[in-house]
User: Which sequence fits this backbone?
């Protein structure tokens, strides 16, 4: 079974706001960290931050100065960042497409880790593509992963959720004439070797990821609540908890609790994430403002941390620097 951590993009592509976000890598990549930092503190406003301030914040996370500058440059070439100049000084802000994509992605992270009712039916996607169409096969499999599917067999992927219209359109575009979709209940066979649909996921492995997440972050929570995590440490911890938790919607795409082991840790992990992420919002924002203020008095006013409640409501900066609800933004998936 392929690991969900191998998926190339941080967030699923949105058809209306298509752009190439950084590839997922083992560990934290400079580009990924830069995107997370800018999203966490400027998604509301799409504020332009001095490049020197972005570099300074990235170096506090362990990225080298050269690596930070390269990451910013590459993100601008990808269309994730927009560059502006004032004399010899450059500033960067999230592009409108990136802000919309990241807003949808943040909402997706939280809604996808919320338990929902299940009607007992499975959606089955069967496809057949020639072996020589390697790139198309990889793209189709990657998109199916982002849509919450897993391979029960090589060319047969399953999900406990219905196929949404946006997902249907994406599959038609990626593999026209090569995909068939069904939805129905499993007919259990009383035979040895029967494979249940939920076995398309490594349930035990997902459980271990939840356990590791809880082990890593539970000891920090009392210090967060007592205000002992401040400055650069608050920014680093908030960035890391987001970088880690964002993997769970793909690992565990709202798998029906009735099919999972008793005491499934999805909800405790989600609650812990929210407590750490929201609890560090104020001290992290204060530090980011201070760092940005060393390079620009005006840019610091555009720094604003959002919470998990904001992500659920839908936040997206526009060209006027405003914030809008999700009804005007891209569809969540």
Assistant:
């Amino acid at each position: 079974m392929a690991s969900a951590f191998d998926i190339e993009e941080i967030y699923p592509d949105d058809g209306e706001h298509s752009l190439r976000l950084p590839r997922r890598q083992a560990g934290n990549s400079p580009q990924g960290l830069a995107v997370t930092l800018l999203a966490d503190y400027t998604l509301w406003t799409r504020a332009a931050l001095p490049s020197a301030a972005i570099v300074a914040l990235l170096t506090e996370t362990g990225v080298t100065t050269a690596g930070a500058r390269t990451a910013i440059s590459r993100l601008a070439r990808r269309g994730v960042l927009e560059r502006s100049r004032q004399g010899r000084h450059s500033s960067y802000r999230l592009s409108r497409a990136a802000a919309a994509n990241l807003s949808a992605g943040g909402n997706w992270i939280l809604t996808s880790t919320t338990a929902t009712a299940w009607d007992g039916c499975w959606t089955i996607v069967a496809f057949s593509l020639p072996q020589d169409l390697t790139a198309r096969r990889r793209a189709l499999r990657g998109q199916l992963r982002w849509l919450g599917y897993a391979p029960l067999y090589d060319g047969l992927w399953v999900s406990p959720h219905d196929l949404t219209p946006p997902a249907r359109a994406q599959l038609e575009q990626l593999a026209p004439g090569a995909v068939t979709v069904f939805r129905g209940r499993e007919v259990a066979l009383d035979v040895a070797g029967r494979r249940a649909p939920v076995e398309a996921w490594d349930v035990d492995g997902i459980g271990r990821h939840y356990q590791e997440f809880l082990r890593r972050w539970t000891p920090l929570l009392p210090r967060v609540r007592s205000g002992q995590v401040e400055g650069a440490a608050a920014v680093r911890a908030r960035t890391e908890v987001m970088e880690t938790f964002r993997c769970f919607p793909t690992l565990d795409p709202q798998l029906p609790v009735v099919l999972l082991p008793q005491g499934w840790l999805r909800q405790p992990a989600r609650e812990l994430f929210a407590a750490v992420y929201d609890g560090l919002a104020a001290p992290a924002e204060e530090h980011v403002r201070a760092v940005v203020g060393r390079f620009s008095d005006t840019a610091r006013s555009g720094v604003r941390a959002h919470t998990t409640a904001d992500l659920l409501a839908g936040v997206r900066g526009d060209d006027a620097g405003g914030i809008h609800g999700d009804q005007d933004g891209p569809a969540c998936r």
